[in-house]
Amino acid sequence: MLLHSRNNIPANLIGLRRNICTELKLDDQDLPFAGELMQVRSEELDWQPALEKLLNPLALRLLVPDKHYKKVTRYINNTDLKTRLVYNLVKDVALQQHADKGTAWHKLEFHPEHPLSAWVGQQVIQQYNFSCVDNEKSLERYEKAITIQGLIKNRDRHEKDDRPGRSDASRYVLGWNNEKKKEALQRRRSQLLTELEQADEARQRVTQKGNRLRDQVFAAKHIGEHDSFRTIHIAALQQAIHHAEEQMSKLKKGSDQLKALTQQLEGIREKLQLQQKEKDELVKKTTLVEFDLQTREKEQQNLSGFVNLLTETDKDLLLQFQQRHSSALSAESLSLDNIDTHYSQLTETAELAAKQYEETAAKEGRELDRAINKIKNPPLEVLQRFTDWAADTQRLPADREYAGEYMEWLDKLESENLPRFKKDFERLLHDTAVIKMGVLNEELESWERKIKNSISTLNQSLSGINFNRLPDTYIQLGIRPVTDTVIKESGTSCSMRSHRPPTGNRTALRTRPCTLRRMYRPLSIASMKANPIVAGSLTFATGSSSGPTKNSAKHRSSKKPTAKWASSPAEKKHSLPIRSFAAPSPISSASPAKDEIRKACVSSPSTKVLAIRMKKRLLT
């Protein structure tokens, strides 16, 4: 662990911090230990053992910034850490304090690039403001002090920790660079290896000496079993053995039969040795086979429960798998010896296929994302051609998991086949518009004929009414063509559009109702006002034609007959100017002309109002 780390913090705490950062998706630098942010200055290394003992509790504290405090506390509270952890909540330092001269703070240096180094420095000043003195005599002048030998004074409490290993450089925790600690550990390792070799040599010497002493003890125990010194006289026994061997060699050289027997004996011994070797090999094989058999039986027992859990569906799947891999799983090629090899091969093949499937799925997913993005954000010409595109695609989600909705949309478009009904709809719209415009033209022509007939009837009746005397005149209603451009353009457009064939332009198709409505709205308003065209306010400047008085005569000489009409375009079309003609003879109020005017007015619904007003005028 130390080789892969740059600090001196123990491996168990480094591993614990790595687990916390992995679960919370944080970087190791976000949760540093205090010991990683301070170290003893290079010119004060003689004080390092004492300062390591003093600052060890602070150095092993985990520093948690305020922004990560809640989730770190939640994780630590709900997790079994398997070790002891102390951590501090770090907030911004509001007031910077300064260390006293000669204290431990001046013998330390702090990490220059980490944002929490200032907080660590303030903690050293506030909690470990110990003066560094050279000997025990100077302790009396300070309430809090530490000697270079490691004696710590905190007012009345004194402490010195000289337990084995406490001053070992391999146990230092301060500093953000552990090269010195690695060197110390390597030196310690070399020293331990040397001591281990020396101990092994001493063990071998002791073992040899023990064997020699054991042989001596054995000989001393059995020395009493010999009757005389001659039985244990080694030199005499060796000499006798040598003499016997010389005699045997002489006999072997002098007897052929003995040579043959000796050769046979050697051959038998060689056979025995070979058979013994074969026996040993067979025993080894038997042992291995028995061990393998026991292992197979255990595996069979472990798998028996799994086999019992298989359903019919699982069996069908296994059968399909066996059929797909029949060449590798055949009885000739599969055995207990190579089943593990086949399993590894099939596993590698399956993992490779799964990896290829994942790559293919990822590639198709990217293509699907691009297609969805292209549908959601089509080119400008598509939006101009299909104006409802954005509204139709807005409700569709942009995630690839919902691609089925796009397929349903496509199936709906293909099944409904709306383009097939496009021309039929255009033709129906055109035919309907033509029919409606033809009906409108016929209505306008019918109204025009009725107006002309009514005016003709009125003129015939008015010709018999004496309008003025000296000379005698009468009133006639005239008709002149309209000069309004709106009605003229509407009629021309109506005539042209009623004979125009339908087009396939979708934009024109969609805007045609609005165009027709905008074009015929003035005409429809004029048509609504066309009924009272002839019923305009006609004011006569004469009195009764049967008996004019002096006042009435004076009134006739001062005013001319006038006609006042509405100023709408449709009313201007049929405006009726008054023309005066010489009257042949006066008509009394009981004249049949009144009856003719009344009948003519009643016969045309568009002249009802005028008939009523003219009746009142004639009666006066």
Any descriptors?
620 residues, alpha+beta, 4 domains, four-stranded mixed beta sheet, 12 strands, elongated
Give structural notes.
The chain is of the alpha+beta class. It folds into 4 domains: 11-177, no CATH class; 234-304, no CATH class; 343-416, no CATH class; 423-619, no CATH class. The chain has 19 helices and 12 strands. The chain has helices at residues 11-24, 48-59, 69-77, 117-127, 179-222, 234-254, 256-308, 312-324, 339-376, 380-385, 389-394, 403-416, 422-462, 485-497, 506-528, 550-558, 569-573, 592-603, 608-619, and strands at 38-40, 61-65, 86-90, 108-110, 131-133, 144-147, 152-154, 157-159, 473-477, 538-539, 562-563, 578-582. Strands 5-6-7-8 form a 4-stranded mixed β-sheet, with no helix packed on it. A two-stranded antiparallel ribbon has the order 1-4. The protein has a two-stranded parallel ribbon with strand order 2-3. Helix 3 links the parallel strand 2 (61-65) and strand 3. Helix 13 packs antiparallel against helix 18 and helix 18 (592-603) packs antiparallel against helix 19 (608-619). It is elongated. Mean pLDDT is 76; it is low at 523-594 and 600-620.
Helix content, binned percent:
55-70%
Number of strands: 12
Report the major sheet.
4 strands, mixed
Average pLDDT taken over every residue: 76
Kindly provide the radius of gyration, computed on alpha-carbon positions and rounded to a whole number of angstroms.
63 Å
Gross morphology: elongated
The figure for the number of domains is 4
Low-confidence stretches: 523-594, 600-620
The number of distinct helices, counting runs of at least 4 residues, comes to 19
What's the arrangement of strands in the largest beta sheet? 5-6-7-8
**Beta-strand percentage?**
5-15%
Distance between the termini: 127 Å
Structural class based on helices, strands and sheet pairing: alpha+beta
